[in-house]
């Protein structure tokens, strides 16, 4: 649309008024165009922001799903590995809930070893093993003894496993005062920490190999 031009009325006052009105209209049109441009830019920015956030959330979900899938695969393998050892392991539960003082805690794997007559509880951690993780397992062992151990059962033993990309960690946990029992009896039946660590590393490598193979197909 062409700019409004005042008509020549031969009357200077009227011409001046029309000129002022025309200038106001021209300025108003420019403001409208600038406002439209600003709104369009802001709208495009908002659209881009939502797309980026959606993609980032999708990446986070994919990463978490991959970690959860790896953890479940490792737990599946540990369950099979211990049952196939043929050393008295009997499966009890996965993700078993124990509650105390209104707090629910979940243990990844629980077995009962009928040769040792004790519960064996396993907690799998992702990443580097921390002092907090060790303390948490000690608490699990104490709580399991208090809540689940029956007359005739020997003290509960815990196994904490840390699945790291470079090297896994396996560590046993028993309540203080049971060290001699562990050394003289439990170690003759239970797999060693080195055996557990090697099995965890081997399974992680196989899982990663399968994942890479699937991604290239």
Provide the descriptors you would attach to this structure in a database record:
217 residues; Trna Endonuclease, Chain: A, domain 1; 5 strands; 55% helix
CATH class of the largest domain: Alpha Beta
Spell the H/E element sequence.
HEEEHEEHH
Q: Number of DSSP strands?
A: 5
Average per-residue pLDDT, rounded, comes to: 77
What about the largest sheet?
A: 5 strands, mixed
Number of domains: 2
Strand content: 15-25%
* Architecture (CATH level 2) name of the largest domain: 3-Layer(aba) Sandwich
The best one-word shape is: elongated
**Radius of gyration, whole Å:** 35 Å
Low-confidence stretches: 59-67
Number of distinct helices: 4
CATH structural fold name of the largest domain:
Trna Endonuclease, Chain: A, domain 1
Helix content: 55-70%
Structural class: alpha+beta
Give the strand order of the largest sheet, numbering strands 1, 2, ... along the chain.
1-2-3-4-5
How widely separated are the two ends?
Answer: 58 Å
Oligomer: single chain
Describe this structure in words.
This protein has 217 residues and is α+β, with helices and mostly antiparallel strands. It folds into two domains: 13-63; 65-215, Trna Endonuclease, Chain: A, domain 1, CATH 3.40.1350.10. Helices cover 55% and strands 20% of the residues. A five-stranded mixed beta sheet has the order 1-2-3-4-5, with helices on both faces. Helix 1 (12-84) packs across helix 4 (193-216). Residues 59-67 have low confidence and may be disordered.
């Amino acid at each position: 649309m062409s700019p409004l031009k005042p008509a020549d009325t031969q009357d200077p006052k009227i011409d001046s008024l029309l000129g002022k009105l025309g200038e106001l209209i021209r300025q108003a049109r420019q403001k409208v165009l600038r406002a439209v441009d600003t709104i369009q830019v802001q709208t495009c920015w908002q659209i881009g922001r939502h797309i980026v956030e959606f993609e980032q959330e999708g990446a986070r979900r994919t990463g978490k799903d991959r970690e959860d899938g790896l953890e479940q695969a490792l737990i599946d393998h540990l369950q099979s590995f211990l049952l196939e050892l043929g050393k008295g392991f009997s499966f009890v539960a996965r993700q078993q809930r124990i509650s105390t003082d209104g707090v629910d805690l979940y243990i990844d794997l629980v077995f009962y070893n009928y040769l040792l007559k004790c519960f064996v509880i396993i907690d799998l951690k992702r990443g580097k093993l921390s002092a907090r993780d060790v303390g948490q397992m000690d608490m699990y062992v104490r709580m399991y003894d208090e809540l689940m151990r029956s007359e005739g059962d020997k003290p509960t033993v815990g196994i904490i496993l840390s699945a790291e990309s470079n090297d896994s960690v396996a560590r046993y946990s028993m309540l203080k005062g049971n060290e001699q029992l562990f050394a003289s009896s439990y170690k003759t039946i239970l797999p060693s920490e080195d055996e557990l660590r090697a099995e965890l590393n081997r399974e992680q490598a196989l899982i990663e190999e399968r994942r890479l193979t699937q991604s290239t197909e």
